[in-house]
Amino acid sequence: MEIAIMGAGISGLACAIKLEKNGITPTIFEKRDKVGDRFVNGEALLDIFTRPVQDCIASLSDEYGIYLNPTSSIQKIELFSKNEKAVIEGQLGFTNIRGREADSFESQLEQQVKSTIHYHSEKTYEQLQSEYTHVVVATGDGAYAKQAKNYREDLSVSIKGATIEGSFNRNTVMAWIDYDLAPYGYCFLIPFSDKEASISLAIPELQENADLNIDSLWDNFYKKLKSQLEQELPITDEFQISNYLIGICQSPRIGNTFYIGNNYGTMMPFMGFGQYASIISGVHAAYELCGLGNYQELMEPLRQSYEDGLVLRRALERLSNEGLDRIVRLLQGYWGEKLFLTKSINPLKTASYLLRPYIKMKKGGTS
To answer: Is the full-model pTM beyond 0.85?
Structure first.
């Protein structure tokens, strides 16, 4: 068995680590000159989006032998709508760094890999398919799966982000669901030190947003953020992505090709999270390659989480700022604590179950 992994991101590296632990040495091909050779940004692992798993870092270590050190734990989330604010406190998850940083998740995973990584690779999928018995596609987006007619595209998004300097509480994450700032989208501030944070703005590329200029939205968000935090927040690094596909594969495996990470569809349509699912998809592909499980069956819980997130995404697109205000108002106090801190509740699954008939009805009414 000769296995090629196409892409040295978090899913591809996780797959390699698990294969090696079971005596199989893959070959990894990466088109960039090093792992994490992309923009730097802070990301979050929120327990509310990974249940029934309650601690992603512990789960990766104890269950899968993959060791990651997050930047910090999240002890507080401040959620803002246009006119309301909710504060949720407790053990809520972790923050981490992605990209070209020595302690990014990509760099941490690379240190655990013994297999050869070919950088600056120009190998195509077709070439790898002809040279190896199995190919694991971990290229970070759904393009290859789409080419194979194995991808259901649900939406695309535009994202703009930056690294800012200032004074931050590294245990506090801030989020905005305010359609004056990001129509049908969201904004985040995720610290990765006491002096640096990542900010981002994401909007779905809907017909209603066709005439929007993301640069203008960004300027408004950045101005509001500086006023809200009463800091100058100088920008030290920036990135922008347009037409980023969010969808999911019809099948996680076709023949001897395995689709993992965002190529499979591990990014949540609701709020864009998906690191844990991406890593686990690589582990599950390795399990089948090692004869330890069925990849399609192992991925069913992650597929269901994606579908639940899509229901919430469609519900979000039907809300106004007034509706968002009502939701945030409810999250301040009892309901916020209930949803975020009651480990036996799966908010994604529960909300999707309650909203699915409504979304179906609304779609039927507008068709």
So the answer is: yes
